[in-house]
Amino acid sequence: MYIVNHRKIFYIIATVLMAGSLLAMFTWGFNPGIDFKGGSILEVSYQTTRPEIATLNQALAPLSLDQSIRPTGELGYIIRLKSITEPERVLLMKAITPNVATTPEVKRFDSIGPLLGREALSKSLVSIILVLLAIVIFITFAFRKVSEPVASWKYGLITVFALFHDVLVPTGVFVALGHFAGFEIDTLFVTALLVILGFSVHDTIVVFDRVRENLKLAHANHTKKSFEEIVGDSISQTFIRSINTSLTTLLALAVLYFIGPEVTKHFSLALLVGITAGTYSSIFIGSPLLVTVEKWQHKG
């Protein structure tokens, strides 16, 4: 009952997080990767020692490639730049090769045109919208027999609001990191958001399902419990399970982030932030909102 009784505090925390994320998005904007804006990406690895980033930037300056250089591993770099032609790629390789002894090995070179980038962006947005729509339909159907005191479609809308929180928080974090540390929003980040949506809705449904079962028991046993008490009991009964499930997932992601390959670091970081936000919303936002909606109905 503690969470339900003090739900306004948790609403304020969620509001601050969401407002901060929106402020970051409107203030700094997104830093899209080549997946969305088009461009080229080159990953190289030096055999013994790698040159300093400042040295590479100085060497590439005359080519005007709008490059962004990020270290990977101990001897490699990932270089993101605008779309280039084959002659420009030859000049690029010469510029990042200080001498014959330090000729880098090309691990990866990809180039995406602006049309493909826009297509990837539109498909990513459509994917997220379709997932949210499918979730609303599924929850409305799954809770169709629960019409009192809160209609089943309201369970769906509350879930979507909680999921909006879960997506907005990691997006705001990555916008801030994009401004201060050069993090980019790419298709891998969108994939992380879709994973977060799936994980979070599972956690939310677990609590909602316990509310449904407790409502049935209360009606069957003619127990005189308020809806607020039933929701509070349901949260208490699923609290440890939700926390333990999230912690095991977060531990695995933490290991992937700290000792995994460089290419998955941003992906695992997005999941770490998003799943943490999702666990918070499932326990402290979604279920208490059922109580708030029920009380609004009585006032109306």
If you had to describe this structure to a student in words, what would you say it looks like?
- With about 300 residues, this protein is an alpha+beta fold.
- The chain has 2 domains: about 1-35 and about 115-300, Multidrug efflux transporter AcrB transmembrane domain (Multidrug efflux transporter AcrB transmembrane fold), CATH 1.20.1640.10; about 40-110, Alpha-Beta Plaits (2-Layer Sandwich), CATH 3.30.70.
- About 70% of the residues lie in helices and about 10% in strands.
- It is built from 10 helices and 4 strands.
- It has helices at about 1-5, 5-30, 35, 55-60, 85-95, 115-140, 150-180, 185-220, 225-260, 265-300, and strands at about 40-45, 70, 75-80, 105-110.
- The chain has a 4-stranded antiparallel beta sheet.
- Strand 2 and strand 3 form a beta hairpin.
